[in-house]
Amino acid sequence: MAVTRNRFIVDENGKRVSVVLPVDDYEELLEDLHDLAVVAERRHEPAVSHATLKKRLKAGGLLPR
After folding, report:
1. What is the pLDDT of residue 64?
2. Containing domain of residue 11, as a range?
3. What is the CA radius of gyration of the chain?
4. Phi-psi region of 31 (alpha: psi -120 to 50; beta: other; left: phi over 0)
5. Is position 64 within any domain?
6. Quick one: pLDDT at residue 3?
7. What's the pTM?
8. Is 65 a member of any domain?
9. pLDDT at position 2, please?
10. Which of 33, 30, 26, 34 is closest to 1 using CA atoms?
11. b/e for 9-35, b at 16 or more Cβ within 10 A?
12. φ, ψ for residue 12, nearest 5 deg
């Protein structure tokens, strides 16, 4: 994320109620949120060893043999 000056929308009492973000930052936050949701959904799946993962990735053509 690029460093930007924070911009807020405030209510009549000066309390911050919203934030203005560059679209790229917003989309990056949405991707992060999606990734966290996937992790939460899969947290009860059994773990796979590093060796097994490498073997699967090579078999799928995602890693060189």
Report:
1. 94
2. 7-59
3. 20
4. alpha
5. no
6. 64
7. 0.61
8. no
9. 60
10. 26
11. eeeeeeeeeeeeeeeeeeeeeeeeeee
12. -65, -15
Chain segment 5-63, per-residue pLDDT in tens: 889 999 999 999 999 999 999 999 999 999 999 999 999 999 999 999 999 999 999 99
Residue 32 lies in a domain: yes
**Residue-wise DSSP of 12-39:** TTS-EEEEE--HHHHHHHHHHHHHHHHH
User: Which burial class, exposed, middle or buried, applies to 50 when counting CB atoms under 10 A from its CB (0-12, 13-18, 19+)?
Assistant: exposed
Q: Provide the domain count of the chain.
A: 1
Residue 37 domain flag: yes
Residue type, 50: H
